[in-house]
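hey can u check if this looks right to u? its 498 residues, i copy pasted from the old doc so theres a chance i mangled smth
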Amino acid sequence: MNGRGYGEAGQDGHSGRRGQDGAGRIDHHGAMNPSPPRDSLLWLVAIAVFMQMLDTTIVNTALPAMARGLGESPLRMQAVVIAYSLTVAILIPASGWLADRFGTRAVFLAAIVLFTLGSLGCALSQSLAQIVGARIVQGIGGAMLLPVGRLAVLRTFPGAGFLRAMSLVTMPGLAGPMIGPTLGGWLVEAASWHWIFLINLPMGLVGLVWAVRVMPDLRGEPGRRFDLGGYVLLATGMVAVLLALDGLPLRRGGYGVLCGLFGVGVLAILAYARHARRSTQPLFPPALLDVRLFRVGVSGNLVSRLGSSGMPFLIPLLLQVALGYSALQAGLMMIPVAAASMFIKRPAVWLIGRYGYRNVLVVNTFLVGLAMASFGLIGPGHPVWLLVVQFAAFGAVNSLQFTAMNTVALRDLKGTLASSGNSALSMVMMLSMSLGVAIASGLLAFFSGLSVAGGEVSVLAGFQATFVCIGLLSALSAAIFWRLGDDAVRAPQAPIDV
């Protein structure tokens, strides 16, 4: 999942009862000395990370083929992406409570079953509405799969062992963005788009059997109350705002209905903010917003990702629909993005330590916007080597952006605020992914539908204008990061990448 979720909760003292399956040894230096069952747990969660990262990236390359198979326009397939990411965002606040209430084993097993059934439903879908419904089921499973897996690792490997354990768990996930687009393109050409979902079935079955054997049954504090009222308000607000933004360019239902829906969403979010101030156990403590770095980091995250989150959706469509690339060729062209993203991780720590968060984020935000806007120059006859350079440049600056703004948001959170802030940041990241795709698809629909003298704007011109607009949107978030102040200069101890 494109988020840390609830899986890192507990470092702040949110303790849980450790089941017998999770028993293990920590030596007097705090280092891991895992027994075989504990090693198996790490591999299980690592596969869950890989499955979710693969599923997040494999779909985009296959969207044009899916559109042909379902009789839809490839430029109207954003709901397939949004349904999954929005569902994950909505359920992130509930995943930790579910694990505490019903146990990590039961919730993890349920997550695998739902994710696998959702994948099967996607493969069997005969219409866009059916595949969107199946993606929602898949998202329910994905929202619990990764956070609960991380929570089990945290409670099985406490203290210094946790960071080492999580480094092993997240390594396979880094391969997802590298493999996903290319694998998706190959499956589309070698078989059909249905196989991008069918490949989850054997992994799901193996994971289910494995989880029964090695996933510990860990539970949290008995009687911890879940803020159902606040959850309903927040979820309603997110869904209403997103549906309004997604329907606005095509005027689905009319402007009056869409504006009313947007207003309902805003009112629900404001009602949640008021509710959180009065509740004794809110979903997210209002004190989080009193921490300046968290406030600036989260708001910058949201605005910055509104542009960059649309790129994985737009790039494969540009290559296939506007430039005539095959699905496999489009997938291969995404490798420079993923490779550059991985390469920049180590230099990112040095850059932040040398120049500070504010300087890095302000300058790099402009570079991210410029890199995205440069895709507006792509046209017929564009040299492949130049495309590779553009893709790699975007991958590098975008990865640096994520590392810096995620880490600064959580840097000053201590005690009970640490896990809540982590979960809130994960929710914002997944929400911004949904909003980013909705905005990108909306702009593309708007520009592609414009009429000019002599006819309509070409599809390529629509893509070009869209890239310029989302690049400008991302660049504007530099003004948010300027508010960080001169004290935000310490290098991150453990960069957070999503």
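The chain has three domains: 1-225, 228-280, 289-498.
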